[in-house]
Amino acid sequence: MKALYLSGTAFDIGKQxxxxxxxxxxxxxxxYERLFWYEANMKxxxxxxxxxxHLDYIEKTNIALLDEMEGIAKGASVSFHDxxxxxxxSEIALTNNKSDGCTSVALMxxxxxxxxxxxxxxxxxxxxxxxxxxxxxxxxAPEINMVTEGGIIGKIGLNAYxxxxxxxxxxxxxxxxxxxxxxxxREILNSIDLNEALEKIRDQKIASSANFLIAQGDKSGxxxxxxxxxxxxxxxxxxxxxxxxxxxxxxxARLVDQIGKEKLNTTENTFxxxxxxxxxxxxxxxxxxxxxTDIIRQWFSDHEHYPNxxxxxxxxxxxxxxxxxxxxxxxxxxxxxxxxxxxxxxCNPSEIANFHFN
Length: 358
What we know:
It comes from Lentibacillus cibarius. With 358 residues, the protein is an alpha+beta fold.
């Protein structure tokens, strides 16, 4: 996976991203143009028009987000509206399709040797070629270490304050023209603490449904909060000394009632993975083992219920544009501010890397 080290103004950061990851940005555009057509029978020209609907709200929220996207467009020699569409990809064509992929965990002391946050990121095999690691040194916001897709400015990672975020897709057939999910992720990482992060996503500020598992390390007391978000409301669960986990369905009965079951798009595999990760965590605790990065990697390598397992592999006779695989797994030590990245499946990664802040 290509590693980018970006710094300066928002536009500078974007331009460096677009220049250094030009191939990955173009691959993202090609992949999502195909995906939108396959999933929603939508042409890219229409996707661009839908992306524009979010412009006013993004500008009111943080104009630096627009500046960074402008920079990417300049560096990658594409249009700004192409990059905007990538960053609104969850809202444009994916609210109506079934949720799929990603298993997230937050593990706090005393059950773990540190404050850990991690997940598998399961998505279309074609997008594996677009993945990049970015270290972002900003002038007016925290330094960030993040794994993302070329052209997308917010995803999974942590900042220099030990604040991290993981993402699980949740599909409900409703959306608004507010802040796209991936820009919500960036706003979380632009925060100095958990309270600021939660404030930035409350009150239906996010345009579509998603699950954000957010945690912050602190040697005097770490904390994790899981937030299920939808355009009609949210539900939170917090722990300081235990664990949280999530897959790709709403756990909140209240939110399910508010949204309406008929508007939810859920696949059966999310329930298998939720049951399995909970069992793996509880078994470890019951065996009186302290949870480590090695143990979390074992969980992320689990093949129970295959092919609907935590560790997802390419299925036979399937297209890279339709098959869901584990593209990477990530484990973040929020006390030490380390990011442990496994590219590909955790059971047999193509590359392993450790990233930390200087």
